[in-house]
Specification:
Elements lengths: L1 H36 L5 E7 L2 E7 L16 E2 L4 H14 L29 H5 L10 H7 L10 H9 L14 H15 L3 H13 L17 E2 L5 E2 L8 H4 L2 E2 L1 H11 L5 H9 L4 E2 L4 E2 L4 E4 L4 E8 L4 E7 L4 E7 L4 H16 L1
Antiparallel strand pairs: 1-2, 1-12, 3-6, 4-5, 7-8, 8-9, 9-10, 10-11, 11-12
Helix pairs in contact: 1-11, 2-6, 2-10
Length: 352
């Protein structure tokens, strides 16, 4: 009997390994085909399936280099940063420093003076699920002023002026994507922990996971990819400033797979926090939102995902907790359609 059980276990292990290898080959085939049709766009992809990691990458670090993009090549995460920030918020909830339904009033830094119409109105969960109704930073105007570094002129005083001059929440309770909402969440975290956002994300995500290529302030590294705008022109990486909690983290496929492995482990601090972010805090006919997490569900699958677009790169992270897989796709050009098409094709033809 014991021999039979050992034999069965060995067969299951071989079967699981072969299944994983088949998935990785099929994903690689999709990515390779895309690169052959678009050789000007470099790409790095990481995939985790039942704790087994797989990577594929195509293209060079930059046009003048023969160094190939690989799992360690640095890209801009852009708004994927929000999923890290929301995980920090959920960790603060588990530590009983805040509650998701707390009003933001008492957690904001000095200088903010909410209009009477806004007091005891906006919850932390409203910020995290993009339904606060607060006005946002005018990116269109900022891009006109400085197309390479549009957020460079945004500082603490800019935010205070926007919030203090707001007298009405026109879209409260309705989904409206918000950079300023996540910037405020970063400031709330700084308030409750008495540390900078940089220190908090290092203490609670970067250092515990030993993801040494996940960068905050200093990203002048040799393995950094070159970003390109939609027309193919070179685009600078965004520089760190007060808006960092909304989109300024840089990382690579390897580190993000390490993060996803932790997210998918329901027994870890980060995994428990991720489960909190997966709860539905907003729903309409078009979308469901957790805390910083888009929820896409059908009768067989529930996917949690977050995309990101800087001025020069497009990214997306996605995972299926029930089936225990996750994927990160990183492009060195701003091309949200390509990014979405790749994820859709992989999900529809490989992972479902």
């Amino acid at each position: 009997m014991k021999t039979s059980l050992k034999f069965s276990a060995a067969l299951l292990l071989i079967s699981t390994f072969s299944f994983g290898q088949d998935i990785s080959r099929r994903i690689d085939s999709i990515i390779k085909d895309n690169y052959q049709r678009n050789p000007e766009i470099g790409i790095s992809v990481g995939f985790i399936n039942n704790n087994e990691e797989y990577y594929t990458a195509y293209g060079n670090l930059n046009e003048g280099s023969q160094i190939k993009i690989n799992k360690n090549s640095i890209f801009e995460l852009a708004s994927i940063t929000k999923i890290l920030t929301s995980n920090l918020i959920a960790q603060a909830v588990s530590e009983k420093k805040i509650k998701v339904d707390d009003y933001i009033d008492r957690f904001l830094p000095k200088g903010y003076v909410l209009n009477e119409n806004l007091k005891n109105k906006i919850k932390i969960s409203d910020l995290a699920s993009h339904q606060s109704g607060l006005p946002d930073i005018d990116f269109g105007k900022l891009i006109e002023l400085n197309p390479q570094q549009p957020v460079s002129s945004v500082d603490g005083q800019t935010l205070i002026m926007i919030i203090n001059n707001c007298s009405e929440l026109k879209d409260y309770g309705k989904y409206r994507y918000s950079t300023i909402g996540y910037t405020l969440l970063g400031q709330i975290l700084e308030n409750v922990y008495g540390k900078s956002y940089d220190e908090i994300i290092r203490d609670k995500i970067i250092d515990p996971l030993q993801i040494t290529n996940t960068l905050t302030k200093d990203f002048e590294v040799k393995n950094r990819t070159v970003a390109h705008n939609p027309n193919g022109g070179i685009q600078e990486f965004f520089k760190w400033n007060i808006t960092a909690p909304a989109g300024l983290i840089k990382s690579n496929a390897s580190d993000m797979i390490t993060f996803l492995k932790e997210v998918l482990n329901k027994d870890t601090t980060i995994g428990k926090a991720a489960i909190e972010t997966e709860k539905v805090f907003y729903k309409d006919e078009k979308r469901e939102m957790g805390l910083g997490t888009n929820i896409v569900a059908d009768e067989k699958n529930t996917l949690y995902m977050k995309s990101g677009d800087s001025m020069g790169q497009s990214t997306i992270i996605c995972y299926n907790r029930t089936k225990n897989w996750g994927i990160i796709i990183l492009l060195n050009q701003r091309n949200s359609k390509m990014r979405s098409d790749l994820l859709n094709k992989i999900c529809d033809t490989v992972l479902k």
